[in-house]
Here is the input.
Amino acid sequence: MDESQAQEPMIAADEIDPAVPPSGPGCVECLASDGWWFHLRRCARCGHIGCCDSSPSQHASHHAADTGHPVVRSYEPDEDWFYHYGTDEGMDGPELAAPQHHPPDQPVPGPAGRVPPNWEELLH
Here is the structure.
């Protein structure tokens, strides 16, 4: 197949549930442990919100590995891309249940009051 015939990777039906709402406004584990995040990712299967791989704790990818839910969507405003941890590919996907991103007034990195002053040095 030449490049003109290449197609966008497809998401398997069992890897996404568009009806499931997100688990909350921020990374579940960071909020429970007084942690902080750089960017947020939403599990496309169960709605779990975790922090990205640049964040200190990388909870989104740990969730994918622990649960077998490999597809995430950005949980950042103005971003609607999907990513598959198993294939290491970005892709398009369906509209997910609202809300589509964390609250617009939530700072990045976040949450407010928990981000250390040297946060840039702590990113992966």
Remarks:
- The beta strands are 40-43, 49-51, 71-74, 82-84, 89-91.
- Residues 1-7 have pLDDT under 50 and may be disordered.
